[in-house]
TrEMBL record:
It comes from Sneathiella marina. HAMAP family: Xylose_isom_A. Mg(2+) 2 binds at E270, H273, D309, D311. GO terms for molecular function: xylose isomerase activity. Gene3D superfamilies: Divalent-metal-dependent TIM barrel enzymes. The keyword Cytoplasm applies. Pfam families: AP_endonuc_2 (PF01261). This is Xylose isomerase.
Amino acid sequence: MSTGFFSTEKIAFEGEDSRNPLAFRHYDPNEVVLGKRLEDHLRFACAYWHSFAWPGGDPFGGQTFDRPWFPDRMSDEMAAANLKADVAFEMFSALGVPYFCFHDGDVRPEGDSFSENTKNLNVIVDLFEKKMAVTGVKLLWGTANLFSHRRFMSGAATNPDPDVFAYSAATIKTCMDATHRLGGENYVLWGGREGYETLLNTDLAQEDQQMGRMLNMVVDYKHKIGFNGTILVEPKPQEPTKHQYDFDVATVYGFLKRHGLEKEVKVNIEQGHAILAGHTFEHELATATALGIFGSVDMNRNDYQSGWDTDQFPNNTPEVAMAYYHILKAGGLTTGGTNFDAKLRRQSLDPDDLLAGHIGAMDTCARGLKAAAAMMEDGGLQKALDDRYQRWTAPDAQKMLNGDLDLAQIAEKVIAEDINPEPSSGRQEILENYVNRFV
C-alpha cells in the first residue's frame, strides 16, 4: 500500500515536447542505442543516504527537511527505518531505476554496540529482500559508513587505535555479508576519513600498511564467501580530511599496485570528487580506463564556485556526454552503474522535488549517452586520435617504444637521419566544435 509520500506512483516517458515536470523527456528505458536498451547502458541507481537520510543541513545550518521517519517525528527507530524503506522503494519503483545503493548507517538505527548494529542491519536486510522480490529493484552496491560516528574521527582502517581498526573490519564484514545476501553486484570502500590533518601526529608508513592490510582482508573475504561482485574503491580528495590517501584515480592505482591489488580492485569515480581533486570527470574516467581499473560512477556535480562537495544532480549534457564517451570506449558499464550520489538543495522541501531531481538527472544522462553513442558511431574523435599518433605505428617508432633501441642508439639515429621535427597542430578547436555537433 502506498505511503502517499509522493504525488505519483509512476514516472512516464512523454518525449521532448512534454511540459510535465514529473515526466521523462529524453530517458526511454527501452530505446535501443548501439544495440542495447538505454536502461541496460545506464544502469541507474538511487543513493539511499542523500535521498532518505540527509536532513538538509550544511556547515552553517541544521535540518530543513521534514520527513516522517526523522527522529523528531518518530521515536521508534526501527519503525522509522521500516517507513523509510517503504518510501525508498516507492521512489525506486516510480522512477523505474533498476538499482539502489546504501551504507549500513543509512538504513538501520545506530545501536549501543556492534552486535546491536549488526542485529538492526539484518532486520532491514530481511525487509529489503522482500521489497526487492516484489519490485524487481536490485542492489548495485553496499558499503559501510566508517566516517560519521565520532569513533572514526581519526580514520577507520588508518586509525592509530587498533580497536577502531578491528571495529571497522567487523563492520565491513557485516556489510559485505548483507551485500552478498542481497545479490549486490559490487561492494564499495569509501574512505571518508582515511587521511590526516597534520603530520605532527601521523605516521604515513604505518597508516599505509594498515590501509593495505584492510583492503587485502576485504579481497580475501570476498573470495571466501564466494562474492562474485566487484570490489570498488572510491577516490576522494581533501574533504573532510585535509590530506586523503585515496585522493584521485592515479593515487588509488599506486596504492593498489603497492599492495598487490591492481588485479582485484577497481574504482568507483564520482564527478564531484574529480572536481575537488583539480581534475575533470573525463580525466578521471580516462585515467581509470587506461590503467584497467574502471568500475562504476557516482553521477553528480559540484558547484564550481564552492570549495566543497555540493553533490548536485547532473545537468550539464556536454560534460556527461564526454563521460559516457570514455565509458563506452572502455566497453560500457559491466557490474558498475550510474549511481546518483546527489542531494536536493536544502530549500527544496517538497517530496516531489526528490523525484524531479532524479528525473532531470536521468534525462541528462540519457541525452549524454545518446550523444556519446553518436560520436562513437561517427568515429570522428577516434580518427583524430589515430591520425595524431599514426607515426608511432612505424617500425622504427615501435623499436623505440618496445625497448629495442637504447638512448645511445636513438641519438645515433637522430644524427644519421638529420632528424629535426616540426610540430603539428593539435586541432583542439576543431575537435571542440566537432563535439558540439552532437551535444
